[in-house]
Amino acid sequence: MALLNDEQLKCLIEAAFFVADKPLSVQLLKKTVLEQHNVSNKRIITQINELRAHYQNRGIELVKVASGYRFQAVAKFSNELANLFKERAPRYSRALLETLSLIAYKQPITRGAIEDIRGVAVSSAIMKTLLERNWIDIVGYKEVPGRPALYATTQVFLDYFSLETLSDLPEPLSIEKVPLTEFTLSDDA
């Protein structure tokens, strides 16, 4: 086992984050790029925190998401950086986003419960899209007649939206009761 000083360890971790095609957890770092080295979790986390501090106030940042750490562009530059990509991000329908929101906030939830809340049927295409993107998964079946599938979000969902846990979701907006205004009909009506 080769010994790494702190600077070498930090450089190796930094390189791993740059070349990885997915977020890397401390455990995944230990099983892959640090497999040949006897490095404690504490040392790895210390170097990750130093990297995070180093990349503050820069164009990229090292962020922690559900499945580990990754480099990403600072959000304030997203509009300018979007011009680099010929493919535009897919536009998602309001129905798809409403369905995804309900799953995220009410999970585990059945398709029937989503339909009851939304007041309309959820198309198979929406569920298929969410499953194909790996943003949701079937996590079980409700113990009622017909045994409908229970849906919940995945780590891919958390990673995509740069969330570490579901508790990082924004608070849902409360719908305030708006008093009905009394209208008087005029004689002209």
Q: How would you describe this structure to a colleague?
A:
With 189 residues, this protein is α+β, with helices and mostly antiparallel strands. The chain has helices at residues 6-19, 26-31, 41-54, 78-82, 94-106, 111-118, 124-132, 155-160; strands at 60-65, 68-73, 109-110, 136-141, 149-153. A three-stranded antiparallel beta sheet has the order 3-5-4. Strands 1-2 form a two-stranded antiparallel sheet. The longest helix has 14 residues, at 6-19. The protein is elongated, with a radius of gyration of 23 Å. It starts with 5 loop residues before the first helix and ends in a 29-residue tail after the last helix. The relative contact order is 0.10. Residues 182-189 have low confidence and may be disordered.
Task: Specify the overall morphology.
Answer: elongated
Strand order of the largest sheet: 3-5-4
Strand content: 5-15%
Count of separate DSSP helical elements: 8
Which sequence of SSEs, written as H and E, runs from N to C?
Answer: HHHEEHHEHHEEH
Radius of gyration: 23 Å
The residue ranges in which pLDDT falls below 50 over 5 or more consecutive positions are 182-189
Number of strands: 5
Biggest beta sheet summary: 3 strands, antiparallel
Helix percentage: 25-40%
Distance between the termini: 90 Å
Mean pLDDT: 88
User: What structural category do the secondary elements indicate?
Assistant: alpha+beta
